[in-house]
Amino acid sequence: MSEELVNSIRDAVSVINDPHMGISIVEMGLVKDISVDGDQAKIVIQPTNPGCMSVTRIAADAKVQAEKVEGISNAEIIVEGHVMAESINEMINR
After folding, report:
1. Global model pTM greater than 0.85
2. Residue 83 — φ and ψ, nearest 5°?
3. Closest C-alpha to 40, from 74, 91, 13, 10
């Protein structure tokens, strides 16, 4: 079941495009990991640039899309490798 949910989440967030490249964040490899524990999802996103100004929008969109997946009540988004990662993670996961 959780493998199906991981695939559903991957499909859901694949509609999000990097605003600079116009390519899916999944296709670009920005989504580093997706895990599911019960109805809780955790998605790790790593931008290609540690100063990427779009990563907050990408992370927020990923949270919204993941939480639309049936069977997921909450998605925690973890941004890694960004100079503001700690602040972004705190803001997105309130």
Report:
1. yes
2. -65, -25
3. 74
